């Protein structure tokens, strides 16, 4: 084997996985929110276009519900790196795991990196994504990492006697708000998610699944604009941000 072949074999590729099988019921739309028009295009396409603008990304996989009313075929990117996969599951973690398995079946390497990103975070910038990639890949001993923001607001815990009132104030020191992308090795993440699902562990993101198997993912500073669009007021705010054309 020559040096070029060795380099190609040992250099992990970068892939993106976007779960898009959610219903977005809290938004009150008739169709899943990720396919609703936001700032002139379906919300999912904003983050997809960010990743498509990054030459270092080898493939991009979007896991959708097989029975969902997705976008017309010609609305999806025509880039050869893009893959639409009917791997949606009952939960977000099942969608991610199903899509990881589809990626592996298609030849994606077990040691390749995958960046899992929420379609409901359309404000992701190329700079933030590259900051995560650089931070994770330059730390030889880390298992992966996530974008996150240090908590700035005062944290309140509701009263057990009256859930409409404050029970006490919690210290915010050391607390971070998780964002996406969350970046891990393909096989390691698949195994962690599989174990979490089989044992019915309560994992709300990829990092929490990795934490359960003993990993300590890296915290990489994210951006305020990479907020998750969950409620109607979030939608209006993100529409204004994206419409400004600063992406």
UniProtKB/TrEMBL annotation:
The keyword NADP does not apply. Its EC number is 2.7.7.60. The keyword Nucleotidyltransferase applies. The record marks 26, 33 as: Transition state stabilizer. Keywords: Isoprene biosynthesis, Nucleotidyltransferase, Transferase. One of its GO terms (biological process) is isopentenyl diphosphate biosynthetic process, methylerythritol 4-phosphate pathway. Pfam families: IspD. Catalyzes the formation of 4-diphosphocytidyl-2-C-methyl-D-erythritol from CTP and 2-C-methyl-D-erythritol 4-phosphate (MEP). This is 2-C-methyl-D-erythritol 4-phosphate cytidylyltransferase. It comes from Polynucleobacter victoriensis.
């Amino acid at each position: 084997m020559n040096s070029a072949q060795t380099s190609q074999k040992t250099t992990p590729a970068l892939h993106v996985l976007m779960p898009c099988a959610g219903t977005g019921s809290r938004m009150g739309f008739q169709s899943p929110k990720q396919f609703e028009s936001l700032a002139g295009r379906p919300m999912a396409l904003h983050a997809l276009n960010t990743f498509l603008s990054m030459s270092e990304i080898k493939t991009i996989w979007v896991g959708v519900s097989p029975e969902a009313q997705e976008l017309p075929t010609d609305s999806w990117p025509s880039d050869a790196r893009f893959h639409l996969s009917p791997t949606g599951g009952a939960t977000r973690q099942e969608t991610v795991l199903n899509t990881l398995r589809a990626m592996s079946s298609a030849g994606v390497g077990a040691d390749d990196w995958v960046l899992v990103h929420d379609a409901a975070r359309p404000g992701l910038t190329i700079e933030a994504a590259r900051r995560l990639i650089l931070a994770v890949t330059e730390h030889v001993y880390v298992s992966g990492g996530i974008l996150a923001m240090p908590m700035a607001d005062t944290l309140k815990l509701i009263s057990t006697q009256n859930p409409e009132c404050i029970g006490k104030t919690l210290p915010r020191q050391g607390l971070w708000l998780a964002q996406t992308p969350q970046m891990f090795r393909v096989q390691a993440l698949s195994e962690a998610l599989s174990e979490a699902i089989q044992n019915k562990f309560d994992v709300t993101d990829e990092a929490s699944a990795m934490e359960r198997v003993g990993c300590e993912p890296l915290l990489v500073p994210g951006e305020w604009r990479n907020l998750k669009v969950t409620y109607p007021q979030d939608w209006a705010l993100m529409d204004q941000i994206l419409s400004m054309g600063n992406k």
